Amino acid sequence: MLQLSLSLPKEDPLITMHRDLARTRREQIPPTWVMVIDLSKCIGCHACTLACATENNLPPGVVYRPVIEEEVGKYPNVGRRFLPRPCMHCQNPPCVPVCPVHATWKDDEGTVVIDYTKCIGCRFCLKACPYGARTSDFGENYANGTPELPGTLVGRNQIERGYARKTAPEYDKDWGDRRRASPVGNARKCHFCLHRVHNGQLPSCVTSCIGRATFFGNINDPKALVHRLVGSARTTRLKEHLGTDPHVYYLS
């Protein structure tokens, strides 16, 4: 009888990371949230990009979690490599000191956040970010250009009602009707899905990754999976020479 020797993980990394989050809350370990992305596992499916857009009700042109694609090699030996690029949540974020109204800062959990009620849409932070991690919300929605139709046909109002008129609970807040209030006109970016993390859930990009290439947790917890991964010899970070000290790590 043929016997197959399989080297399988003891458990799904999602289970491990959920347990890590629970331990941080239970033992009250001061959190510094970090993300680790294993580039050898990323297949470029863009599931994280779509999950992020759905979770945060992102409008056209606003992307928190792009996946950058690059063709490598020479014909006929060519291939593609993929680089998911969320906000780096730098320890020394260049986007923070340029804000003239102090609408963005680094919070006590190591996450760079934005107060939509203070942001004036000057876009200085977009220029200052060396990673291109911020985008501006110009108030567009996917129903723009859709005619309003009579009778029972689905028109613009029906389309807008379920998606374009509401805002996601970013930063644990209700931002109201998107047609009349923030974050329209403001700078926006990845926020590690803090509204999920504070309720014991992982960021949507982590749970949607079919290759289990994205990891998240508290680096201050020595038992956490991300703590062990960051100590790997494969670890690297983007543009470290700038002194930004990113909180997003890559395994090459």
Layout: helices, strands, pairs:
Elements: H1 13-26, E1 33-38, H2 47-55, E2 67-74, E3 77-84, E4 104-106, E5 112-114, H3 124-128, E6 135-136, H4 156-162, E7 187-188, H5 194-197, H6 204-208, E8 214-218, H7 225-230, E9 235-236, E10 248-251
Q: What distinguishing features does this structure have?
A:
252 residues, Alpha-Beta Plaits, 4-stranded mixed sheet, two-stranded antiparallel ribbon, 20% helix
3D structure, described in words:
- This protein is of the alpha+beta class and 252 residues long.
- Helices cover 20% and strands 17% of the residues.
- It is built from 7 helices and 10 strands.
- The mean pLDDT is 91.
Binned, the helix content reads: 10-25%
Question: Which sequence of strands runs across the widest sheet?
Answer: 8-1-10-9
Question: What is the strand tally?
Answer: 10
The level-1 CATH class:
Alpha Beta
Q: In CATH terms, what is the fold-level topology?
A: Alpha-Beta Plaits
Shape: globular
Which class do the helix and strand fractions yield?
alpha+beta
